Amino acid sequence: SPPALPAWTGSSQRELLLLKLGEHGDHGPFGPDGIAGGPGLMGPEGKSGLRGQTGNPGIMPEPVAGAFSVARLSSQEGTTESRSLSFETAFVNVAGRLDLPSGGYAAPVPGVYHFNINVHSWNGRETFLHVMRNEDACAALHAQPGQRSVSLSQSLLLPLHTDDKVPALHLGHHIQPDN
């Protein structure tokens, strides 16, 4: 026969629950894990760590420079076609960026470069000289034939990219050294 139920006095709800449910038993074994949830919200920022040790000093790179001073000491006869003006003497040629036989200069780094050109024309010769940047003419010197010798001078600033070429071309006629 079923166990006898205690008499209900109606004084508390706990007694009512005990009448319906009985006493609490021991916990049972855990069930299998459920499906994992998504990432949670980011937590607050942590404290900064200790400052690290000072590193070794780096090696200072060599400054890149481009400078040259060249001359043509003998005259150069022209033709009716353009050709590069070659040079015979280099007074200064930092890093060898100017090629004497071709007369072309290759920029070592991007920047604005200053060029100064001096030409002497004489004996009634007409002289043309073009300073180029790659394939584009940037400056021109021109001396018309006449009874007197003429010295021409041109200064220019050229913005160049690394390895842009700057040859001096002359078109026909005569280039005489300016001693």
TrEMBL record:
Extent of the signal sequence: none
Compartments (UniProt record): Secreted
Boundaries of every C1q domain copy: 61-179
Pfam families per the UniProt record, alphabetical: C1q
Keyword Secreted in annotation: yes
InterPro entries with a match to the protein in the record: C1q_dom, Collagen/C1q_domain, Tumour_necrosis_fac-like_dom
Recorded GO CC terms: collagen trimer
UniProt KW keywords: Secreted
Protein name (database record): C1q and TNF related 8
